[in-house]
Structures are given as structure tokens and as C-alpha cells.
Amino acid sequence: MIKLNENAHVSTENGWQIFEKEYDAKQSINSGSNYLLGNGYLGYRGTFAENTKEDYTACIVTDTFDMADGKWRELSNVPNGLYTTLTSNGIFYALDVTGYNNYEKKLDFKDALLKRKTTYKDGLSLNTEKYSSMHEKHLLAMSYEVSTINEKTLSIKTGIDGDVWSINGDHFQLKETSIEDSMLISHVKTKEYGTDIYVVEHHSFSHQGSKEETIQEESSIFKSLSFDLGANETLTLTKYVAIYTSNDSEQPKEDAIQLIKNTINKGYDKNKEEHVEAWHDLWQAYDIKANGNIEAQTLIRFNLYHNIIATPRHKKHPIGARGLSCQAYQGAAFWDQEIFNMPMFLYSTPEVARNILEYRYDTIYGARKKAKDLGYDGAFYAWISGKTGEELCPDYFFKNVLTGRKIRNHFNIWQIHISPDITYAISKYYQATEDWEFIENFGAEIVFDVAKFIESRVHFNDFKGYYEVIRVLGPDEWHENVDNNTFTNYQCKFALEEALEFYKQFKNRNNEELTSLMKDLNISNERIEKWQKIAEKLFIHEPNQETLLIEQFDGFFKLEDITPEKLSNRLIDEEEYWGWPNGIAVATQVSKQADLVQLLVMHDHLYDQEIVKNNYYYYEKRCKHGSSLSPAMHAIIASRIGDEEEALKYFYTSSTVDLFSTNEAVVGGTFIGGIHTAAAGAVWQVLVHGFSGISFRDDSIEINPRIPEAFDSLEFNITFKNQHFHLNVFNDIVFIESLKSNTRDLDFVINGSKHNIRKHSSNKIPS
Amino acid sequence: MIKLNENAHVSTENGWQIFEKEYDAKQSINSGSNYLLGNGYLGYRGTFAENTKEDYTACIVTDTFDMADGKWRELSNVPNGLYTTLTSNGIFYALDVTGYNNYEKKLDFKDALLKRKTTYKDGLSLNTEKYSSMHEKHLLAMSYEVSTINEKTLSIKTGIDGDVWSINGDHFQLKETSIEDSMLISHVKTKEYGTDIYVVEHHSFSHQGSKEETIQEESSIFKSLSFDLGANETLTLTKYVAIYTSNDSEQPKEDAIQLIKNTINKGYDKNKEEHVEAWHDLWQAYDIKANGNIEAQTLIRFNLYHNIIATPRHKKHPIGARGLSCQAYQGAAFWDQEIFNMPMFLYSTPEVARNILEYRYDTIYGARKKAKDLGYDGAFYAWISGKTGEELCPDYFFKNVLTGRKIRNHFNIWQIHISPDITYAISKYYQATEDWEFIENFGAEIVFDVAKFIESRVHFNDFKGYYEVIRVLGPDEWHENVDNNTFTNYQCKFALEEALEFYKQFKNRNNEELTSLMKDLNISNERIEKWQKIAEKLFIHEPNQETLLIEQFDGFFKLEDITPEKLSNRLIDEEEYWGWPNGIAVATQVSKQADLVQLLVMHDHLYDQEIVKNNYYYYEKRCKHGSSLSPAMHAIIASRIGDEEEALKYFYTSSTVDLFSTNEAVVGGTFIGGIHTAAAGAVWQVLVHGFSGISFRDDSIEINPRIPEAFDSLEFNITFKNQHFHLNVFNDIVFIESLKSNTRDLDFVINGSKHNIRKHSSNKIPS
User: Fold this and answer.
1) A314 and A234 both lie in a single domain
2) Longest dimension (CA), chain A
3) CATH code for the domain of A269
4) I want to staple A274 with a disulfide (CB 3.0 to 4.6 A). Which of A135, A556, A758, B473 is the partner?
5) Burial class (CB in 10 A: 0-12, 13-18, 19+), A478
6) Per-residue pLDDT for B206 more than 70?
7) Model pLDDT for residues B482-509, shown as the tens digit of each residue
8) C-alpha separations of A227 from A81, A86, A200, A494, B56 in Å
């Protein structure tokens, strides 16, 4: 047993699990997120069977967006079908009520099982096992075993708890319960779109009860069973819960009932086996072995696990900024999805990346509407994107805790880099997959419409002789209303160049398709020339000739130069927002996250090492890491410039942002807990782009290993150009195996030397 | 005696004076401003001889700008040479200390004399008379008479009180006092520029004293005289104070001493006579008789008086937003100077208007520097302009009273209309005077450099096909960071058109001069074409076809529509700033002052009556009049659209903003009291442009009388095209006298009928 953290009480055995042996009520919100179960369709928080909304228990389901309070549209938390309590002579068996002798909560990543063992002081033991099936996305299952060292009269209440926690209003206009074929059924209907949600529960006991009761309420329905349990006897309760919505199926209720029937027929073990096998397949694709470091190994798998379960694989739904771990950030997609979550999928299972991008195609209507409403052309993607792609980000996001007044933040209208970020992701997807069919049918339309948006958003400054991008927020959200933000301008330039590149490819390949698309999108030859001109004349801050520093935006270097530590002394209240309009960081160079570092990660060929180094050290000192997106990017660049100490520090910061969370999960009355899925996805990038030094080029894979001493090697699979490779990266040797399914050779450039890796070959290359 | 206001205890006898007979300590700050003496060189607050800095006594002198606190540059308050106290057996004769039987403070406008009479309860009477000479700008004088009904031993302390009030730091690096030739001398030196200031005092008593003492301190110097005053005897103290600075003269001390000597030689009566005669000449030029309404007459003269004394006539110095009534707003010029103060001078004594505009020429260096520092071309005038024209407006102007944090307002960098406003004033000056010599030597350079600034400040929006002006504040300062502000855009367009017009005139008149100027200013033919193009394609919000409403800026009509009254309920603290960034007005249509109303005043030919009416009523309802500039503009437009009731209401509001002031003079710890000189200047505009309906056209004067019933007629002199006219405007008849000095005929268009007014003729024209 290796303790990962004293305060958070997290341990591992062998890097394939986390567990805790002490119950800490103060950590229960974070723990509920960290031990989350999920499969991309639903997320079920790692709370206990007896927990309720007071304990932030939740089962969040994709595609159930609803706006109940007139302001925030968010995913629904559906009735909790695994709810189960145990009592005996007035004793309620819960960790914070009844003292325990032994306790363990364990999340096994490999099998994706959540286990809980408690031995209460009175000799009663409770062992549970839960999973949300990766094989059958609509299914939750639980095995609940009770035993006792001395005879007891027990009462179990189990069923569906419909009294759910919701951050922004009650989402259900209708709530009803029923019983059919000994299944408990909860039916709710969302307020805005009238989505029907069915939660169908079935349970069975290994023993007959002495007394059975049905408790039926408007939104909850339970069975209560009383029974005598003899000394050293074990009672097992087996529960299956099927969840379907009218967005999943035309007959959600029937489908849910049928799924329960099928599940009963298969039995608990078989269902579990299918689930576990599905997970083993996923690990085959995504696992990264950190040889020689079990602690780091655990952190890695924790993050890969969470990136996997946050990501819908079954359908084209957004990846929430908190995944399906709760309703925070509305269950909706930010740029995080393409830039932080997607790379792991793109270079492992590109079909999942395509799913993500097709979601953007499906929601282009919303992006076009947003552009038009704001007086622009083309597609201006939502900063917070739900089902339709319409903007979910409210005008007032934060509030001033000193005055109680809400703050008008402008993420929704000024943070324009979201659009070129999607072009960037499409470009990376096409580079990695050469999937022209996707470009032709989906990608090009997005890329062209993003270019149209940029065209309408830039301004030519006659006096200065260049195009400007005025009034934006870059990734550093504490500086709103800035001009010529280097990150944003570069992304815009890149997006225009990509549009021109795809246009060229269309011309080369299939003129008819192009003609039709150009006509549909109203793209003339003049427009193509215009894009060319803008791309050429779009202003980008150059590195200063002496300092090599690149300015974050116009006038950034004139802002007050102060460290985040000193600046924080100006806080009047710990919970104050640091950014717009008058937060303590606004008039300073202190950033929430460092735009330039982000740019250097995303465009790793742009500047030479000296420039990268100078900018890293300049901006790093001034970065508060007020965003969970920030540390991983710093780890990658620190690694690239050979600062192993910093790289490792930021790797640990990034990979433990949730696991060791000392953050408050509730700030200013708002729940902002949950899993930081972008940070989860970014850990993959730190390992592959950072420590392993891998860059994907148009015709090769570059590897410049910089494995920290703390690891022996990093070992993982990579998919590129439809070729699959098993890599084991040491600092002095890189093992490359071209897998059996491969169809062609591929060049690898290792520390500058080109190696042609033949298909189906195993290679050991000194680096 | 006509009481003008119950609470402010202000009365008049015949419209040529204000007086109070009750002393109200709470009004003493406002009273000190309202009873201000001045002559455009200095302002001496209408406090009492015995008052000190605790009573906001001040003598503010032009051209003494100094920055003592590193943030605010402001005029200096110089040592108080009229300081005099009276004591008797431990009784200190002051209004708030010793009870009085009779009291009167009176400001006589005609003679510009401030008189004070007090009879204390113990039978002692004090009569004083003060003036700041309009004939000799460096001179202050006081006659101080004490009498008593029963014999008393009295002590008078008189001299120079150097312990002065200053808003932003102590401005003097050196303070010294001396006595020469029985003159008391105070010498101070400012911190920033080392300006030497000399205050030289001389006093004489009508009686010999029993005991004389000299009290000499670092910055103060007094004589103390004790004497016995018999029953019904009167003692007279006569004081002269001369003030010179090293900016006025190379030998300021000698000049001050010489002035005192000359003054003594002439004697009190002669000096006073010269002062009074100078004032009678001014009233000849500026007075407006409101026949039939003594109350309104008093308000009018109060405002004309303050506009006169705020305005430097002797040199090209800025007119302060609070004149010389205190240091508030730094003693510096805003757009108020050209748009609010100047018109009265322009159409009465155009040489004073030229003075004002030459000040802008003298400070063009600062405007060019500001433009360059911010990345623009040409001349971007300071929002707050002092001696050099460099920007005096600090980044942080207001503070958030709820949090104590200072607010980054952007008056200094976004309120760009100041530059075209100056072009507007030059255009009006040229129209009124045909003074080509001024244009050739001063005006054109400003106008061309303003055009260059605008050229570099606008952006062409390809997508929309027009030029935009992005990120500005219009006159309504509660809405910062707005685009295509109608007022600003129209002013920019107008300023470009004027530049083109002057260019054309140059070409017609004198090609050599033009060639040289164009070369100096780097103005090519292409640039002239560019200005033409920008002027043509600069976006201006058009009146909506149905509502006829003109939008204040992009998106204004989408802001929350609420009345100022309802909105004010959202205040947490009465002193909160309503504007940027998160004040209660920001996200609403409530304005500090109504941009559109201002535009309609300044460009009275732009829209027809229906459009004017609809816009007036729309914007008036949503205007909080948070600026003293606002009510007068509303009075003018209300008058124009025939709403006499509203017009009169706003006339009274505007003309009493200081006189009846119920405002707090100290807000958030900052003194913002003092005379609102723009409102003073605007009252002239209400009477001439509003009630008399006078518009100055290129070749005529239009008169459309709309004299409110509250007046019989308005009678005043007007100068236009170097011709002088005496007008008496009734609603049904206009009397026009072309004065003897005139050299030509001029067309008057009265209610649409053209009348050629022959030189030296008297005309009675039915309207």
C-alpha cells in the first residue's frame, strides 16, 4: 500500500486503483467526484448507497439539457436508482452517523469497479460493488452484501430516490413513479424541452424478508424489507438500474424495461464480465505505463480514467468541463474539449475524436446564429456549448463577493478563439487520420465558416498597415477587452491558412464538390483572396529583439509587474474574482493561465528554443494558475526546455488537481466542484508531448525523449495515419513496435535522426 | 427683497445681486463658491475674512499647476492675503462662534463686490467689502470696518495666512515670509516646476493702535493691533493684496510690490472705480435682460458672472471645469471649455473665444504626444488639459465606495470626441468671425491634425462596408467601451468635413501657405482623398423608420430599459458611481447625460422636428442628469420642440445647479464642490439658442422666438461677422438694432422670413 497523499487519504496498491481507509466528511464532495463511475453516457458520483442530495449524490445523464431558472441551461441529475439504506433498531448505518472499525472505498481503474467495505463498531459489515457498465451504457449495477457477527434484525430500504440535487433549479415539470413486473419505475419530464427520462430499477435479495413494504411518493419509490440476519450470515442485494431518455430512443420506457430483463437473464457476473472486458479494451488503447513509479502511475491512470468516462463515445455529445461528474459548468463543452480532452483520443482511437468534431458540425447552426446575432458572418462557436450549439454562457457568470453584485463577464461574446481552436482540432485530426471523407462532408464546412467569421471579425488598420483583432479575451480570462492577443491572433491566422489549405486540396481532388460547397457557403474567389490577405497581414506580436519576449496583447508589458504571491495580498476577501472588471489582476501582468505558454504548446514549431525558454520563464513567474488548464501546459514547455524539476512539479500539480484537491468545492454559494476533465486530458499530453517529446508532423512522428529521472520509461500505444505503434520511451533508447494490423511504413525522427519504421517491425533505437 | 430659495437662503433686490441674511454653516462650502470673486486670473472664494482652510477658504491662481502627490496635477491655492480676525476679551468674532443679531452677505454682480455686514449680539458691527480687481488682475482689495455701540478693547490680526487648503498634496517645496517697506510678503515655490509665487500684502488702519505685534511663521505672516474703540466709533482697515508668479513675469516680487505701491497711491476709491468700470464694460457685452422676471434675471446674471470670472482673458489659459473656484477637477479644461463656456464669448467678444482656441494651439504638442503614445497619428487632445496639453486625467478617477477599490475609468484614452469637439469650435469661430488669419496661423493646423487623428482611429469594417469608431465613451460617461457612438461618430465625420473645407479654402486663397502647411503636417493628396472617403463612409446610426429613434451606440436599445428613478433603488450606497465598470447604469439605457440631445443642440439642422421630438422624449426619460452639462441641453431642445414647461424646468435646473445646490460638496472624501462653469456658460445658450431661438448660419442669423410666458422679452447684444446688434426678442416681435460701429448689412431670418438688416438701422419685425 502506497499512500499518495496524507491529507486526502488516498492510497494505491499497484497503480491500478485508488482507495481510502479513513472517512473524512470534509472531503466527501471531492471524494464523490474522484471515485466517479461513468461511461460517457452517464456519470454516477462515488458516494455511498445511503447518501442523498445532502451528500451531493448525483447521476448525470448526457443530452438532458434543461433551463429551469431562466438563466443556466444544464444537464439534469436524474433520480437515483441505487439508493439503499440499512437500519437496525434505530441505528442508521452511515459513516458519519455510526462509528466504524474498518472502512475502505476503492476505485479500481482496470475493471472500473467502485467497492466499499465497512465494518461498523457493532460488528455489522457492508460490502458493496458498483459499476456503470461500459458495455451497456444505460446500465448501472450494484451488489450490496450485509453480514454480521451477531444476529440482528435489519431493515433495508432500496429503490429510486427522486429527491435529487440540482444546482440551478428543479428541472422536472412532471415526476411520477410506478411499479411494473416488480420493477420500480421513475418517470420525469424536463421543463424546457419536455424530455422524458425513465429510471427503471430492479432488485433482488438473497434472503426472504419478514416484512416488505412499498413506499411510493411523487418522485421517489422504494421497497423496504425487514429480515433477521443470523451470526456470520451474509445477505446480498443485487440492483440493476436502466436509464433511457426520449432523446435516446422513441420508447425509452420499454427500452429500459427490456434492458433490465436482459440484464436479469444474463445475471450479475456475466454483466460485470462484459463491462470489465470493455474496459480492458479501452486500457489497451489508452493506458500509459510509467515504469518504475507506482505513485505517478496511479495519478496517470486516474486522469486517463476520468478523461475516458467524461467523453461520450456512443453519440455526438459535448464533453463537459466537469464531464458527467456533476452539473457544474452546465455539462457543456468549452474549447477544453478539442484542445485538452481530444488529443488522447485522436492518437489512440481517432473515431472518438471524429465524434467530438462531428458534434461541432451538428451544432454549427448555433454558431452561425451566434455570429449573426452579434453582427458577424460565418460560425462563431459558443463559449459554452450544449445540445444545439447556441451560447449557454450567461452574461453574468461571476459575482463580486464584496458587493454581492453580479459581474458582466464577456466570455460569451469576446472569447473568440473558440472558433479557430476548432479549426485547429480539425487540422490536427486530418493530419493524424488523413480522413478526407470527414473533411469533405463535415470538416471543411466548419473550417470555411470559421474563416468567414474571422474575416468579419478582424479590422484593417490603415494607419498601421495590418489587420487587428480588437476586443477579445485570450485563454488568460483575467484580461478581458484586449487587442491583438497573440494567442487569438495566431489562431485566427492559422485558421485562415487551414481554410486556404483545404480549399486547395478540394481544388486538387474534386472540383465539383468544391463548387457546390463554395456556392452553399457563399464563398467567392474574391473571398479566398481576402482570406489570403488577412492571413498575411494579420498582426502578430513578434519576439522582442533583445529580450525575445512576445507580448501577450497590446500594452501587456506596460501593466504593473508583480508576482501572483504579492498581488494576492491585495485581496479583501479570499473568494474574490481576480479578473474583469476590477479584480486585483486586471491592471497587472498576473495571468490566470499563460497565453504564450499555451501557444507554444499548440504550435511547437513556431519559435526556437531560446525564445521558448525566455517566454516560459517570464510568463511562468507571472502566472497564478487560476485555471486547471494551466499547469499541464507549463509541464510540457518546462520539459521541452530541459527544466525537469519544473516539468515534474507541474506534472504533479496538474495530475492531482482533483485527487488531492484542497480547493473549496462550493464558492460564493455555487458548486464548482467536480472533475476537471481538461486537466485529466492534459496529463496524457504532458506524458506524450512533454516527457516523451512526441510531435506529430505531416509525414512523420518526432520523438525527443526527456523522461524525468523519476521514471524508468513511458510505455504506450499510439495511432497515427491509421498505423498503430507500441512505444517504450527511455531517455537513451526508444522501442518502437509497428503492430500487426499496420499497412505501411512510417518515418520517426528521433532526436533529429530519421528512422523509417517498417510495418510489423520491432525496433530499438538509441536516442 | 425677493427670496430665490428657502433652503439656500438666497435673495435678490433687483436681479443684480444675491444676498443671504441667515448664516447656515452647512451651506458654507457652496456659499464660498457661489459668492466667489474673480477675474480670470485668480478666484477668491466668498468666505469671510476670519476663515481658514477649515472653511475651504481659497485663492486659486491660473498657471500654477503642480503635482504634489504623484497622481493629480492641479492649480495651487496661494497664501491668503486677506486674512483678518477680530477678538475682544476672548471673544472671537466669527459667525459660527459668536451669535449675531443681523447678518448679510451680498454679492453684487454689476460692480462685482462682495459685502458682508454683521452685527454681533454684543453690539459690535463688522462691515467688509472685497473685490478682485477686473481692471488690475493681480489685485485683491478689502475694506474692513468695525464699529461698536459701547466702548471695547479690540484686537485685529491681519496679514497672510499661508496654511492653505489643498486637495491633492502640499504644492510648495519652499515657503518663506518677510516684511519690506511695511508690506508683508509671502513667497512660495511649487514642487514640480518650481514656479515662484509672491503674495504681497499692505494694510492700513484709520486709527492708531495701542499695541502692535508681528507674528512671523514659515508660511504665514501677520500683524496684530490692539486698540480701544469708543462707542459709535468706526475703525477702518484697508487691505491690498498683489499676487504675481514667475509664470506671469520675470520679476514677480518686484511687480507685486510695485502694484501695491501704485494701488496705495491711487487710493481705495479710485482702484474700486476702475474695477467697477471694467465690470460695467463686461456687462455691456454679456448681459441678458430677462424683462419681467427678476428671479430668472438673478439666476441668469449669477451664471453669466461665473462664466466671466472663470475665463482667463489676459492670457491663453484653460477654463477649469470648476473655474477658479477651487482645485476640484484640477483647474483644467475639458470639452466644456469649447462647447459650454465659449459660445457666450464667441457671439459677444470673439477675441476671448480666439484666446480659448489659441490655448488649444499652444497645447497641440501635448495632444500629439498623447496620440503618439497611444499609437495614433495627429492630435488627440487631453480629456483634462492643463498648461502643456498633456493628459492630466489619471487612470483611476473614481473609487468603488462599496469596496474601497479605485476604479480604472477610461476618460483619458477612450473619450475621443474631445478632438473633433475642438474642430467644431474652430468651425463655429470661423463662421462667426471670418477670421482667416486665425485659421491660417492656428486653426488649420489643429483641424488637420485632428483629422489625422481620426483617420488613424477609425477602422474600416469590410464585412459591413463602412468605417467604425470602436471603443469610445460618448458624453454619457456611464457607458464606456462602446462602438459607433452616434455623437462621437458624427463629430468625427464633421471634423473630417471641416478639414476638407479648410483645405479647399486654402487652395482657393493661397496655395503657397497650403503647400508649406501640408508639407509640415505630412498631408498628401492621397490623405485628403482618404479623409473624403472616411467622411463619406463613416457609419452613423440612422433614425429608425418607424420610431424615428437614433441609437446612442451599437446595441444601446438592447440594454435594459428602466427609469433612473427605479434604477436608483438598486443602489447599495448613495455615493456609488453609476458608471463603469459595474455601476447600476452600465447595463441599462439610463444615461448620465443624453448624447443624442447634445448632438441635436450642436447640429440643429440635422434632423426634422418629428425626429428631434421623438428622440428628445425617448432619451429625456432615461437621463439621470448625472452631469451638470445635461439640463441646459434639454432646455434648448425642449424649447425647440415647443415644450415650454420642460424647457423652463430645465432652465431652472441648469441655472441653479450651484446657487441652490443641495449636492454634497465632498463625496467619498474628495472635494468636488465649486462652480460648475459649463452649466454657467450653458445658461447663455438656453436663452439665446433656446428661448430666443437663434441659430447662426453661414450667411445669416435665424431667429425663431419661443420666449416662455414667464418672461416679457429677452434683451441682449450679439456680435456676428464683426457686426454688433442689440436684440429685444418678444414672441411676436423682434427688435433689432444694428449698432453704430457696424460696417455692413446682414440677413436675419425670422420664423422663416428673410429680413435684410441695414447697417445702423433700428428694426421692429413682427415674427
Assistant:
1) no
2) 89
3) 2.70.98.40
4) A135
5) buried
6) yes
7) 999 999 999 999 999 999 999 999 888 8
8) 22, 11, 25, 69, 89
CATH number of the domain residue B527 falls in = 1.50.10.10
CB contact under 8 A, A403 and B402: yes
Residues B214 and B334 in one domain: no
- Is A690 inside any structural domain? no
CA distance A83 to B110: 91
To the query of whether residue A233 is one of the catalytic residues in this protein, the response is no
Which pLDDT score, from 0 to 100, does residue A514 have? 80
- Which residues in chain A land under pLDDT 70? 662-670
A223, β-bridge pairs: A158, A214
Contacts of B532 in chain A (CB under 8 A): none
Q: What is the pLDDT of residue B670?
A: 63
Determine the distance in angstroms separating the CA of A379 from the nearest CA of chain B, rounded to an integer.
14
Same-domain status, B483 and B615 = yes
Residues B108 and B133 placed together within one structural domain of the fold:
yes
Clarify whether residues A282 and A299 are in a common domain.
Answer: no
Q: What is the mean pLDDT of residues B101-115?
A: 97
Arithmetic mean of pLDDT, B456-477: 96
- Return the residue of B nearest to A582 by Cα: B407
Domain for residue B655, yes or no? no
- The pLDDT value recorded for residue A313 is 93
CATH number at residue A714: 2.60.420.10
Largest Cα–Cα separation, chain B = 90
Best B403, B526, B570 member to test A by mutation, with max A CBs in 10 Å, is B403
pLDDT of residue B517: 84
Q: Least CB-CB distance to B459: which of A455, A459, A481?
A: A459
User: For testing the chain A interface, which of B396, B397, B402, B405 should be mutated: the one with the most A CBs within 10 Å?
Assistant: B405
Q: What is the pLDDT of residues B279-307, one digit of tens each?
A: 999 999 999 999 999 999 999 999 999 99
Q: Of A241, A257, A286, at which residue does a domain stop?
A: A286
Which pLDDT belongs to residue A662?
Answer: 64
**Catalytic residue chosen out of the listed positions A477, A480, A646, A737:** A477
* A572 contacts B404? CB cut-off 8 A: yes
Q: Taking the model in full, what pTM does it have? A: 0.93
Residues of chain A neighbouring B376 (CB-CB closer than 8 A): 463
Say whether both B207 and B112 belong to one domain.
yes
B405: closest chain A residue by CA: A582
Structural domains of chain B, count: 3
| Assigned domain for B455 exists | yes
Residues A73 and A196 in one domain: yes
Q: What mean pLDDT value characterizes chain B?
A: 95
Lowest mean pLDDT among A19-33, B42-56, B614-628: A19-33
Share of chain B above pLDDT 90, in %: 87
The string of DSSP codes covering A311-370 is: S--SS--PPPTTTTS-SGGGG-B-THIIIIIHHHHHTT-HHHHHHHHHHHHHTHHHHHHH
> Final residue of a domain: which of A286, A308, A329?
A286
Residues A108 and A141 both lie in one domain: yes
CA distance A491 to B428: 49
| Calpha distance A494→A497 (Å, rounded) | 5
- Candidates A462, A468, A478, A539, partner chain B, best to mutate (most B CBs within 10 A): A462
Q: Do A582 and B468 touch (CB under 8 A)?
A: no
User: Which ranges of B510-629 would DSSP assign to H, the alpha helix?
Assistant: 511-521, 525-537, 564-568, 595-602, 609-621
- The domain containing residue A750 runs over which residues? 702-766
> Which residues of B participate in catalysis according to the annotation?
477
Q: What is the pLDDT of residue A519?
A: 86
Q: Is B215 a domain residue?
A: yes
Chain A closest-CA separation from residue B326 CA (Å): 31
Nearest chain A residue (CA) to B467: A459
The answer on pLDDT for B243 being more than 90 is yes
Closest to B297 measured CA to CA, from B288, B305, B286, B306: B288
User: Chain B interface residues facing chain A, Cβ-Cβ under 8 Å?
Assistant: 375-377, 400, 402-405, 407-408, 455-456, 459-464, 468, 470-471, 481, 530, 554, 572, 580-582, 586-587
Which residues on B lie below 8 Å from A459 (Cβ)? Answer: 459-461, 468, 470
Separation in Å, CA A615 to CA A585, A587, A634, A637, B566: 20, 20, 11, 10, 51
